[in-house]
Amino acid sequence: MNQNNFYIQYHNADKLRCFPTEKTDFNSLISEITLNDDIKEHDSWIYTKKKTAKKATNGICFLIVGKTENKIKNYYLWSCFKIEDYEENLDKIIVIGTGQDLKKPILLNNLPDFISFKKFCGNFGIGFQNITKNDFSLKLFSYIKDNKEIFSQANPKISLYKEIRELNSKMLFINPERKVQEIDKILRKDKKIVESLKKLVDYKCQFPECNSTIPTEKGVNYVEVAHIKPVFKGGKSILGNLIVFCPNHHKEFDLGIKEILEDNTETISGILNGKNFKIDLHNNYTYKVE
Q: Per the CB 3.0–4.6 Å rule, which of 75, 77, 180, 262 could disulfide with 269?
């Protein structure tokens, strides 16, 4: 049993003097047009004034194009997309979804039951409309042969996108506040040795084969100093416990899976996220990967 809700939007090309897909020659016969049928994800497909669109999420919408060709009003199935969200812009509702244009738009005029379907849709004068109760909706859906899965699978990013939009709406009315708080902070008092260590290695990341560069206004490369044994666990800012890293390797060293195999004033070696590394501190900070 079908569980989809189906909708249509009508595009009167004669009135609008254009096709819904940009850069499509309006003077061409639609039967001669070939569209790009790549999947377009979370894209803006149509706009409408019908508030029905706000309740159509997860429904499937067919875009039908009407154009007079050789003195005959022809109607084509132009595209199909799954409705994922909407945005309101003044008096218009922009409908967003994932779907595709049909490579060759399908002429509907001569299909069985099209005339009665057209009457059901008020000769396409209603605009955005729910057509689920009309069997012709299944006929339209049958033409979406190769990518029906995109209309049945939920996009995991949709809920995240909505959440971000809601949070953004709230953040528009929130201004940063300065507050004075009493905090418990460890004072390392290691600025001199940290800066000297950076200079010694020419402001380069010591992780093997890393060539990261982040130029600063001071004319030197930005690097950070990591502690092998963290300060909050009693680690000291002394040789053998300090390594100069780029920000990425610093975070990887702090948060990644690591095993220190050798740690002294001359050599630091181990495994970081499955990669063996060895840093020779004694020999002017040269390093190699094993």
A: 262
